[in-house]
Amino acid sequence: MYLQRRNRIIRQSPAIRSLVAETILTPGDFIVPLFIIEGKNDESEISSMPGYYRRSLDLTVKEVKELWATGLKSVLLFIKCKDELKDNKGTEALNPNGLMQRSIRAIKEAVPGMVVMTDVALDPFSSYGHDGIVENNEIVNDATVEVLAAMSVSHAQAGADFVAPSDMMDGRIGAIRKALEENNFNKTGIMSYSAKYASCFYGPFRDALDSAPGFGDKKTYQMDYSNRIEAVKETLMDIEEGADIVMIKPALAYLDIIREIKNVVNVPVSAYNISGEYAMVKAAAKMGWLDEDKAILETLTAIKRAGADLIATYFAKDAIRLIR
Ligand code: PBG
Q1: What is the CA(205)–ligand 1 centre distance, in A?
Q2: What is the pLDDT of residues 288-310, one digit of tens each?
Q3: If you measure from the C-alpha of residue 110 to the centroid of ligand 1, how many angstroms do you get, rounded to a whole number?
Q4: Is 274 in the pocket of ligand 1 (CB under 6 A)?
Q5: Chain-wide mean pLDDT for the chain?
Q6: Could you tell me the pTM of the whole model?
Q7: 22-323 — its CATH code?
């Protein structure tokens, strides 16, 4: 048979395949989410996220040192707020000695080079488990934005490199940027969860922080998964308002959105390989239905190929082990 073109030529050996590979994972691609609890020398496995832990701050600091030693460069902090400190306005979120603020300081002190990003949203602090203040069974926008801006300043004060608002209120990026500028935090970045969809795949995360909404769902602020153009609108507005990095979340069922956004923006794009995506791989691997390591590499490579410059993932340590 005569063929002018034989596509298999570039696939015939591992060496050739690696020469022509378009997408290569590196340690600089990853952001490691960390769940922090009060206490000392305490860690507990998250039941719906096998192999992933909530840790007290002392153990978290130890973990961050290890992450840094493996070449990972960024962590994204979430804290589990005690029930008795939760209220409708998320007051504890602004406590200069709150767990988040103490965590930022301790991590920056122990590993100054580590890029510390912080979750900015009310849900872990809210007695209703919502990302905003509740009035008459509604999540109110503007009053929530004020708290988010104050929270961002408080994180910046504690030494956060990036604040990462994950709430989807309108106008919060502009308000946060203004508040940071007014308080002279002109080196603090904003990684905006700009296209965050209302997703069932957040379930395990809400277990981790005990932050499931107490009533209703998050569909009046997080996006409807039917929509694509709306993700572009949200993201372009966040960039205009001052976002340094934008994020699409979840990642796996939204690879089309990642690509769509990558094609139209001029800032780094990140994607969040979320808790439910982690849990699915873990569960299938446990049943012996999937090869976990291969699934991790394929998934993360696909997210990067779709257009993510950065990936927040619970698999970051595995990825480092696998790409070495
Ligand atoms: C809350 C927040 C959520 C996640 C990150 N920040 C959950 C939610 O919106 O209910 C989900 C992360 C994950 O599932 O891994 N502001």
Answers
A1: 6
A2: 999 999 999 999 999 999 999 99
A3: 27
A4: yes
A5: 97
A6: 0.97
A7: 3.20.20.70
For residues 237 and 223, what is the distance between their CA atoms, to the nearest angstrom? 15
Does 153 have pLDDT greater than 90? yes
Q: Which of 89, 249, 304, 317 is catalytic?
A: 249
Pocket flag, ligand 1, residue 77 (CB < 6 Å) = no
Catalytic residue among 196, 218, 304, 317: 196
Looking from the CA of residue 33, the nearest atom of ligand 1 is 15
pLDDT, position 92 = 97
Convert 105-163 into a string of H (helix), E (strand) and C (coil).
Answer: HHHHHHCCCCEEEEEECCHHHECCCCCCEEECCEEEHHHHHHHHHHHHHHHHHHCCCEE
Does 202 contact ligand 1 (Cβ within 6 A)?
yes
Q: Is the pLDDT of residue 210 over 90?
A: no
10 Å Cβ neighbour count for 264? Answer: 10
Task: Locate the domains of the chain by residue range.
Answer: 22-323
